[in-house]
Design brief:
It is a multi-pass membrane protein. The structure is a single chain. The chain has helices at residues 4-11, 34-39, 61-64, 123-131, 145-152, 165-169, 188-191, 194-200, 239-250, 265-277, 282-292, 300-320, 343-419, 424-448, 457-463, 473-504, 508-534, 541-559, 564-600, 626-647, 656-692; strands at 26-30, 41-42, 46-47, 69-73, 88-89, 95-96, 139-141, 157-158, 176-179, 183-187, 202-207, 222-224, 254-259. By secondary structure, the protein is of the alpha/beta class. The chain folds into four domains: 1-80 and 115-172, 3-Layer(aba) Sandwich (Oxidized Rhodanese, domain 1), CATH 3.40.250; 174-336, Protein-Tyrosine Phosphatase, Chain A, CATH 3.90.190; 370-448; 457-692, no CATH class. The protein has a five-stranded mixed beta sheet. Strands 3-1-4-7 form a four-stranded parallel beta sheet, with helices on both faces. It has a two-stranded antiparallel sheet with strand order 2-8. Strand 5 (88-89) and strand 6 form a beta hairpin. The radius of gyration is 38 Å and the shape is elongated.
Length: 693
């Protein structure tokens, strides 16, 4: 079972980042009502759902077996209070027992997480027992429930129900709690955080690092012990200063002991204080602190100094014959005597214990990895099974859609034949049926966007028989968004490079780089557009085909050798490329805004793209682009005419002149007449709507 302090320390463990990012580290389950959960809950908690029959729904039972900590809580789980005679009670309700009992590993509050299973069959307890069959580690029940935990750690409450991995990556753990509401241990970053100081009510700092920091304006509230984290560093001489400083400040408020990483020097100073003021042996302090911070690890030199500190404390107490000074309850009795010459053997034993603890932690880490590995194997086996089921389901749906589409096509042809001989009532029925058939075909198109399909000829030649269908809406939209960004960035780059080649650089090498960039750009566009079409994007045929022609044209320009003919056309081509990049940038800027608005109104599909031309949906708001488009199209015609005239030049011997002129002429015809057709259809539809109204 887990007390609030135990859960607090579990949540705030970290290595190089918060351990909450590890999928098999903590499963925190809330057994309260939906209203209470929505009002607030402990961070990263999931609510336990109930089936209509009132049975618990186990969240991810396959993964629960590999979770290191599984904690369940309700509103106020009952628990048996310890007698006040066993220790000192503070404002958080923890009993601090300072008796040195055999077998104890810490104060009574270290074990205060124990909850009586006879205290009452609450929701959390029932669910914890239900979960035990799925977990390898014990299921922990939060003592005092949410009410007690939120009273102690209000800053760990949240209304957030879903935590993304990137949010957990940025989660800032708090320092671990050593003495309830009194002593904390952390790193330099945590000590520098004003919000952490405010939440934990930190009134004093012990800085055990080489980096000085002034975090408190008042004097006497911070202690800086500049010590490097090395085997030769001397921290022993500062143990009395640290212990007396913490003792003095605990009467005022909470104290935070910290070092650069919060692993070696800060844990050494904290253990020295526990040995001095709580009458802990080194072994007991080590085990106790390891429970609070799982990756604490003083270096070997500090362990030997702690052993010498233990010998000095016990030796002085034996000589004085008085109870230990500090926060020790009366009647605890004198410290045990220490034999002469103990320092050497004890140092060796403690050093061995340190290495043994390291080995134990490594073995525990290996066990956790083994658990995780077993979980990965089981999940992968389940994944392959589900994948086979998914493949069969996809094949079945694809076959059914194909049959339906074939029958709809046959039905549509039959309706056309019947339409000529039908009565007015039958004709209305036929039109309604044809409208439903068209709607059904659109629905099938949406369905097929989420089903694997065979690649077209071009994709098959480039990629082979690779499935490029993205099965989730988020993945499709992300790929489309990446395509749009790719076009924007390359358009800007091409504009800059063409400007540089035209006005700053006059070299065939830089021209070749520019033409190679054009070839790569258009080749990439053709591949990406084919993938987008496979995933449901409705790109008009010409606006895809003209990229193939542009790829061919750029390739010919790349192979055109330097000479009189090339130099005659070079500046004109670079100027045209600059203008084309400028117009494409304008189109992207305005088309993306228009598409966003139309998608929000439900008038356009989520997979619609910006194009380097004019489509019907641009009629509202983007007609001002038409002059720019027509000017660029006639420039293409001018390029073609220029190249055809150059063929008649007596010095013209390159085949590239003709092979560039033909693509420019085809691009002009395709772009110009496609734009005119779109305008003509739009005007006709507008006139038709006007007549009907």
């Amino acid at each position: 079972m887990a007390g609030p302090r135990h859960l607090y320390n579990i949540i705030n463990q970290y290595r190089w980042r918060s351990r909450l990012t590890e999928p098999n580290y903590l499963c925190l389950l809330d057994a309260r009502s939906q209203r209470e959960f929505n009002d607030s809950h402990i961070i990263t908690a999931q609510r336990i759902e109930l089936s209509p029959a009132g049975e618990y729904l186990i969240p991810n039972p396959e993964e629960l077996g590999y979770v290191r900590f599984c904690v369940v809580y309700d509103h106020d789980t009952d628990y048996q209070e310890k007698e006040k005679e066993t220790g000192i009670w503070n404002e958080k309700g923890f009993a601090v027992d300072v008796r040195e009992a055999d077998g104890d590993t810490g104060p009574a509050w270290a074990n205060s997480s124990l909850v009586s299973l006879d205290a009452g069959e609450g929701d959390a307890l029932l669910h914890a027992r239900n979960l035990e069959q799925f977990t390898r580690h014990p299921v922990l029940l939060l003592k005092g429930g949410y009410k007690h935990f939120s009273a102690c750690y209000h800053f760990l409450k949240s209304k957030k129900t879903l935590w993304m991995p990137q949010e957990l990556d940025t989660f800032q753990p708090y320092p671990v709690e050593i003495l309830p509401a009194k002593l904390y241990m952390g790193n330099f970053k945590q000590a520098s955080d004003k919000q952490i100081q405010k939440d934990l009510k930190i009134k004093a700092l012990v800085n055990v690092s080489e980096q000085p920091v002034t975090l408190f304006a008042e004097e006497g509230k911070s202690l800086h012990v500049s010590v490097p984290d090395s085997l030769e560093a001397d921290l022993f001489s500062s143990f009395p200063t640290i212990s007396h400083f913490i003792d003095a400040q605990l009467d005022v408020g909470a104290v935070l002991v910290f070092s650069s990483l919060g692993i070696s020097r800060s844990s050494t100073a904290t253990m020295a204080y526990l040995m001095h003021s709580c009458r802990f042996s080194l072994q007991r302090a080590w085990k106790y602190l390891l429970k609070c911070k799982m990756n604490m690890r003083p270096n070997r030199g500090f362990v030997e100094q702690l052993s010498a500190w233990e010998n000095q404390i016990y030796g002085e107490r034996q000589k004085e014959g008085s109870p230990a000074q500090g926060r020790v309850r009366k009647g605890a009795g004198p410290a045990p005597p220490v034999a002469a010459g103990r320092a050497g053997p004890v140092a060796a034993a403690i050093a061995a214990m340190a290495w043994g603890a390291s080995l134990a932690e490594c073995l525990r880490e290996w066990e956790e990895l083994q658990d995780g590995y077993q979980g990965i194997q089981d999940n992968h086996k389940l994944y392959k099974q589900k994948l086979e089921e998914l493949t069969k389901l996809q094949d079945g749906i694809s076959s059914s859609i194909t049959r339906q589409k074939k029958r709809l096509k046959e039905l549509s042809l039959s309706l056309k034949k019947c339409k000529g001989q039908a009565t007015p009532e039958q004709e209305a029925s036929i039109q309604e049926t044809q409208s439903l058939i068209k709607e059904r075909q659109n629905v099938f198109f949406e369905m097929e966007a989420y089903l694997p399909k065979k690649n077209g000829l071009y994709l098959s030649l480039v990629l082979g028989n690779v499935n490029v269908t993205l099965l989730s809406k988020q993945a499709k939209f992300a790929y489309k968004d990446e395509y749009e960004k790719f076009k924007l960035y390359l358009t800007i780059i091409l504009l800059i490079v063409s400007f540089s080649c035209r006005f700053l650089l006059n070299s065939r090498v830089t021209d070749a780089v520019f033409n190679f960039l054009l070839v790569w750009y258009y080749c990439t566009l053709t591949i990406r557009e084919s993938i987008l079409i496979n995933n449901g994007s409705k790109i008009k045929g010409w606006w895809v085909f003209h990229h193939y022609i542009s790829t061919f044209l750029s390739g010919v320009m790349l192979t055109w050798p330097d000479g009189l003919m090339y130099q005659m056309f070079r500046n004109q081509f670079l100027s045209f490329s600059m203008y084309q990049s400028f117009v494409q940038f304008l189109q992207y800027y305005y088309q993306s805004g228009c598409l966003y608005r139309l998608r929000a109104l439900g008038e356009r599909h989520n997979m619609d793209l910006t194009v380097e031309g004019f489509q019907s949906w641009m009629w509202r708001g983007l007609t001002f682009l038409l002059p720019f488009l027509f000017f660029g199209q006639f420039w293409q015609l001018y390029n073609a005419i220029t190249l055809f005239r150059m063929i008649q030049h007596p010095e013209c011997k390159e085949w590239q002149v003709l092979m560039c002129g033909i693509p420019f002429f085809i691009l002009f015809l395709g772009n110009f007449f496609t734009t005119l057709r779109v305008m003509h259809q739009k005007i006709q539809n507008k006139n038709k709507d006007t007549k009907e109204n």
